[in-house]
């Protein structure tokens, strides 16, 4: 039986992942996921720009934001917002407001770039395309066999990791409704991958040529896109927990 093996979220896009035991899936996905993001000169800034962002552990609780840096320094406080901004998320405008306080300076010092922290105006809008993503762990094992190395699924930063599926079985669910825990989702198209997947999920350093491996046995879509994992939208909201069964409807 296919089940939810792990949940991956982060309050700040590009920073370290958190792994809650359960989340509430709404029509906006996990609404606290990627509520904050970084910009440099009004352009989106993420792991492709500075992989070591994953070494920063973020946390949000009752209106407070905390960032724990790898040297042990913690920057935290109450979130207050400033001026409005609109950021291009791969052709889609995302509206937000700058976050005032110590976080932007701390992140800028860490990344060696002039960064600003932004909070989206609407929960769930900090996503890439659709509100959720999923990947079967068996697909990562298949890629590992191609590369002759273990492939940690966290490299792909998918919302849900699944156990008990065949390699790339999730690709076959396109346009089908799937019950996951208490929620029902509809699987959409494939997720095109980028260089972030070559980076170690703990250090952010490139350690494995995942893109070459995927291309070598899955080829290219439209002559250029390297796909791994799938998107989904939420049809019926509900709670999803680690260990919940997956049922095709």
In brief, what are we looking at here?
By secondary structure, the protein is mainly β. It has helices spanning 103-111, 137-147, 210-218; strands at residues 3-7, 22-25, 36-40, 43-45, 57-61, 64-68, 74-78, 80-89, 92-100, 116-120, 132-136, 160-163, 177-180, 183-192, 227-236, 238-241, 246-248. The protein has 2 domains: 3-22 and 130-248, Beta Barrel (M1 Pyruvate Kinase, Domain 3), CATH 2.40.33.20; 36-120, no CATH class.
Structural features, described:
The chain has three helices and 17 strands. Helix 2 packs across helix 3. It has helices spanning 103-111, 137-147, 210-218, and strands spanning 3-7, 22-25, 36-40, 43-45, 57-61, 64-68, 74-78, 80-89, 92-100, 116-120, 132-136, 160-163, 177-180, 183-192, 227-236, 238-241, 246-248. It folds into two domains: 3-22 and 130-248, PK beta-barrel domain-like (M1 Pyruvate Kinase, Domain 3); 36-120, no CATH class. Helices cover 12% and strands 39% of the residues. It is mainly beta and 249 residues long. The longest helix is centred in the middle third of the chain and has 11 residues, at 137-147. The two termini are 14 Å apart. It is globular and about 45 Å long. A seven-stranded mixed β-sheet has the order 1-12-11-15-14-13-17. A five-stranded antiparallel β-sheet has the order 4-3-10-9-8. The relative contact order is 0.21. Strand 8 and strand 9 (92-100) form a beta hairpin.
């Amino acid at each position: 039986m296919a089940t939810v093996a792990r949940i991956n979220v982060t309050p700040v896009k590009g920073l370290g992942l958190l792994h809650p035991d359960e989340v509430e899936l709404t029509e906006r996905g996990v609404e606290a996921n990627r509520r904050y993001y970084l910009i440099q000169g009004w352009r989106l800034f993420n792991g492709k720009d500075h992989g070591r962002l994953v070494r920063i552990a973020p946390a949000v609780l009752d209106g407070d934001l905390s960032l724990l840096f790898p040297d042990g320094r913690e920057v935290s406080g109450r979130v207050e917002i400033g001026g409005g901004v609109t950021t291009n998320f791969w052709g889609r405008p995302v509206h937000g407001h700058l976050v005032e306080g110590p976080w932007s300076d701390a992140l800028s010092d860490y990344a060696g770039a002039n960064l600003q922290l932004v909070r989206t105006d609407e929960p769930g809008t900090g996503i890439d395309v659709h509100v959720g993503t999923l990947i079967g762990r068996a697909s990562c094992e298949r890629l590992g066999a191609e590369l002759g190395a273990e492939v940690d699924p966290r490299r792909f930063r998918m919302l849900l990791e699944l156990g008990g599926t065949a390699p790339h079985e999730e690709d076959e669910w396109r346009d089908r409704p799937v019950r996951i825990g208490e929620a029902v989702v509809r699987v959409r198209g494939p997720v095109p991958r980028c260089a972030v997947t070559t980076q170690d999920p703990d250090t952010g350093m490139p350690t494995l040529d995942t893109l070459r491996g995927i291309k070598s046995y899955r080829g290219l879509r439209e002559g250029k896109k390297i796909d791994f994992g799938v998107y989904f939208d939420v049809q019926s909201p509900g709670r999803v927990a680690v260990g919940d069964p997956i049922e095709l409807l």
